[in-house]
Amino acid sequence: MHVPDGFINAPVSAVTGVVAAGAVGLSLRGARKELDERTAPLAGLVAAFVFAVQMLNFPVAAGTSGHLLGGALAAILVGPYTGVLCISVVLLMQGVLFADGGLTALGVNITNMGVVTVVVAYALFRGLVKVLPKKRRSVTVASFVAALVSVPAAAAAFTGMYALGGTTYVPTGTVLTAMVGVHTLIGLGEAAITAATVGAVIAVRPDLVYGARGLTAPLKLRVGGELVDAAPATSPGRARSPRKVWITGLVASVVLAGFVSFYASASPDGLEKVAADHGMDKKAEEHAAANSPLADYGVQDIADGRLSGGLAGVIGVAATVAAGTGVFWVVRRRRTADADAAASARAEETV
Amino acid sequence: MGAGHAHRLYRRGDSPVHALPPHCKLAAVLCFVLVVVATPREAMWAFALYAALLATVAYAARVPAGFLLKRLLIEVPFVAFAVLLPFVAHGEQTQVLGLSLSVDGLWGAWNVLAKGTLGVAASVLLAATTELRELLLGLQRLKLPPLLVQIASFMIRYGDVIADEMRRMRIARESRGFEARGVRHWGVLAKSAGALFIRSYERGERVHLAMVSRGYAGSMPVIDEVTASRAQWSYALTLPLSALAVCLLGWFL
Amino acid sequence: MTPPAPAPEAASAEAPSLEVAGLAYAYPDGHQALFGVDFRIGRGERVALLGPNGAGKTTLVLHLNGILTAGAGTVSVAGLPVGKRHLAEVRRRVGIVFQDPDDQLFMPTVREDVAFGPAAAGLRGAELEARVREALEQVGMAEFADRPPHHLSFGQRRRVAVATVLAMGPEILVLDEPSSNLDPASRRELADILRSLDVTVLMVTHDLPYALELCPRSLVLSEGAIAADGPTRDILADENLMRAHRLELPFGFDPRTVAAGA
């Protein structure tokens, strides 16, 4: 699913770039709570794992290429924020080192394969863990389902971007069918590997699975032959304030709303076909030919009422994230006025 | 980093391109790709000029053409898509060798192929002339957030560890008479993935503890300061600047 | 980059190099490794920590510089309590040499590896160079500065590992199984180096003759607690104590007939 340079037009690349930068910015902030000294290398390992997993490429008919994504694994093992960072690093290094995925398409790639998979997988995972009985087995089951759904979700997101900013006009329905169809199959493989890995890790080192942090029993210490209660370890997963959970949920639902409303209105490609048959495609063709990278934002589709809903959703998300990032940078800049203070603060937080 | 400081894409050498500070090279490649992507796809001659620019760089870096072309194979999955575009795209059709092809699709295929290939070639040249460790230092100097650099450096270290453990586990499996053949054995392979994860983690964890014990707090300490002189910057930026000139010509001609 | 924070409470000159009190710890999977460890080591002492496999030696070592956080009890280094507040300073003062030098050496050249610690503490330029050269000379490896560590022999790698820690100017040197996998000549060279150093040494080992050779005093860690503390020669000669804690001398070795190390 790596999008090469010149595949998605400049405006959409730029917007997704902003979305991706915003998501990475938010994640950098959130990851400080998820990562401590012991788990920092875990993030690197997850990234390496995802890197290896993404190397298995299958060509997909109307998409670019299909492969396992690894977003669900990352989200469950190291937490959603760090998960986004891991995938972003993988995509960056693939772009720079192996030229897999264009550098100018980095925003598209990070948004699709990093943000969408992680958000979908983690939301689903958390929900399932809450609903299922509090056992380790449930974590494995939840990770299977989360991984299974996250891959076609990313494929759908890709189709959305392609419909908005593809440099070549291919009917959305064709892209959607091909991408989601193939990626549902890939999702099965992804689910098997994710569940097996999470299951193995939780059996041996439950302390390494972020998503299972609420499940460990309180520890006892034997001091001088007597059992005393150990001070309960603080679990970062639980320690978040309700406000932050609320904000995260909101952002996630806005992202989902954007894509879902887009599909609710755009998926009946039969309509498109009818339009084409009746000569309405002439207009679209004209715009498609004027398809330089700086062509207007989604011209061929913007007149289409069916799309405006989805478009509005995505623009809304972009604006939200952009504003959020702006606030974040301002806050951060004020905070980092004294570089040394910030550095020592970071050291303390990561420690 | 670790044993991973020399990677397969890297080609040892002492050319002027090898000697450039990594952040200059990174910036140059990024700007070059941006310029290429912003070029109108109808200006075919511009892409030929870009290819000539990259060939000059390859010559200066003493990277042989065969090496470069072999590494370009990485984009084959994208080519598979580009080839399909003329068949699935809509719009005005044209007849080529008795096949009905979409004009827009043909332009699209050309667009993806040309820009993709140039992007891949630029990245391959960067990887061929820059060591991984240098690349990470370069990213750090370009102000990539330290947490990302840290994850990237662990990722590269673990890449070697994983490959190593994978080999050992395969030997252990095979010496007990197991060979992965067909779908029936996927379960075993999926279980190995879990075991592989734990084993790799615990090996890397020990290295990490050793680093933390010596005061590592999230970013690699700067041991040898790499600073780029004005001359080095201008040398590195020759590539994107000449590309920019070509691109502007492409828009106005 | 975090420059070393100035020690908030100046360590008093009288404080012992290392003091451990009531230390208990259980791993997150529920396995408990330490059940209340107490001991203190004075400045300039060389002490061996003896114990069979699985006694909790490595777990204890990871508490000394705050990598593991005590479930109960305290650790202090030269009067400075090990905790989140003073972590950077504690890690500079406690130099741990891990069992496997391949885990310890992760930079492309010996020089960069030795420079890692001081550079992380904020040292730069000529000062850094001097510190690296000094540490390498102390272990007799100065001429290998530009070699990649994985091209050295095992014994040389362990000496470089010691240098990486010495370069940080530690208050106490903690060695985890320093003699493992060494041939007799490398073993003797390492012993000579350790004897020549002017720092407090805690040597974690089950190599009893090496402990007797280097350390006048020994602690026995068994089942997560200190079972004995005294002169090394007396402990090794106490057959009941030795048997009770699964410590065995090599065949034909009699501690009473060997001249103890000073």
What does this structure look like?
The complex is a heterotrimer of chains A (351), B (253) and C (262). Chain A is mostly helical. Chain A contains 14 helices and four strands. Chain A starts with 9 loop residues before the first helix and ends with a helix. Chain B is mainly alpha-helical and 253 residues long. Chain B is built from ten helices and two strands; from the N terminus they run αααααββααααα. Chain B has helices at residues 16-19, 22-37, 44-60, 65-72, 76-88, 103-129, 132-141, 146-175, 186-213, 230-252; strands at residues 93-96, 99-102. The longest helix of chain B is centred in the middle third of the chain and has 30 residues, at 146-175. With 262 residues, chain C is of the alpha/beta class. Classes of the chains: A mainly alpha (351), B mainly alpha (253), C alpha/beta (262). Chains in contact: A-B, A-C, B-C. Chains A and B meet through helix 1, helix 2, helix 4, helix 7 and helix 11 of A and helix 2, helix 5, helix 6, helix 8 and helix 9 of B.
Quaternary: heterotrimer
Query: Architecture of the domain at 10-213 in chain A, according to CATH?
Result: Orthogonal Bundle
Main sheet of chain A: which strands, in order across? Answer: 1-2
Number of strands of chain B: 2
**Unreliable runs of chain B, pLDDT <50, ≥5 residues?**
1-6
What is the structural class of chain B?
mainly alpha
Main β-sheet description of chain A:
2 strands, antiparallel
> What structural category do the secondary elements of chain A indicate?
mainly alpha
Biggest sheet record of chain B: 2 strands, antiparallel
What is the CATH topology descriptor of the domain at 10-213 in chain A?
Arp2/3 complex 21 kDa subunit ARPC3
Q: Please state how the strands of the largest beta sheet of chain B are arranged side by side.
A: 1-2
Encode the helix/strand succession of chain B as letters: HHHHHEEHHHHH
N- to C-terminal distance of chain B: 48 Å
Shape of chain A: globular
Protein name (chain B): Cobalt ECF transporter T component CbiQ
Keywords (chain B): Cell membrane, Membrane, Transmembrane, Transmembrane helix
Subcellular location (chain B): Cell membrane
Transmembrane segments (chain B): 20-37, 43-60, 72-89, 109-128, 233-252
